[in-house]
Fold this protein.
Amino acid sequence: MSGACPGAETVLLALGLSAVGADVGRVSSSQESLASNGALMAYTAAAMYGGAAVDELITGSLPGDPPTDLTSVIPAIAIALLLVRYGPRMSTRWLAALGPIGVVMIAQALIGAPHAGDAAVLYVWPVVWSSFFLGRRGAIAILATIALAHAAVLLALPPTRGYMGRWFEVMIPACTVALVIVTLAERNERLLRRLAEEARIDSLTGLLNRRGFEERAALALAMAERDGTPMALAMFDIDHFKQVNDDWGHEVGDRVLARTGRIIERQARETDVVARYGGEEFVVLLAGSDLGAAHSFGERVRNSLAAAQAPDMPVVRVSVGVDAGRAAENVQVLQRNADDALYRAKRAGRDRTITFQRAALGGYGMRPERI
């Protein structure tokens, strides 16, 4: 990183940067976790600039090497220190410019070097950094910057050193590294997203689990509050499910759970939130439904389940408790009320749908054990 870039080459580099500047600024909003961590972006960029300064200091002190050019080392150290101090508070758009700035500094070093060297390998650093943190657009932008910057370098060198092959020797490896980084980063992002989704899905029924239901229910509540629509909730519990496991075995019990989940989901609308809440219990949040609609939904599920009996499976029935309320009603309140109604259905003989009677209940006392 020694020497200064002549005026013509500086203009060419500036033109190149302005041509790709818009793409550098368009940072992919889909980057998550590590790739969206501003502090990590700043600290790794600081390491990149600091590493370049250390490289120049070491090579400049070796016998036979040109002396260290402090005019290039000092700016690199200054940028590294500023990033450590202020980088985590900088916006991603400003941090995105660090890749092209590094490319320009490398190009200046190559132009000012007294003889052909290996400094072009430093292009790999901004390629890796931009490809990982900025995704495809960042990779394309940094490669375009390198293509223009290195072309300016070769034009500034004597013909014996600035031949076309050196441009391809830089661009082919740089493109390969960018392709590998982007491919691996996107693959990892897909895997992480899939794991996050699976953490919210019940593996037996394919429905949401308790965690997934609570997250989706919060979103549904926010939409209902915005639109001013009512919402209802239905709790389902398979009657005598312990006896099913005892008499038929747990494999058949799992099949009963899976079939019950399918029937409930089939009767629900796309806007409803259906989940296996735990054990043999299912819950459905019915957006835009009143108490009558929720009761009708519970009855449809019961009738569909009764009509879907198979000779190799036990007769299965469900008890249902439902409640409905205003859009501003807390989902937990609806669930608690529907659960109380479900216990009433159990005590009344099972295989029925009971609606929660708000006026009839003076408070929420201790519930009896499940029958």
User: Anything to note?
Assistant: The two ends are 79 Å apart (CA to CA). The chain has two domains: 7-198, 210-355. Residues 165-198 form the longest helix (34 residues).
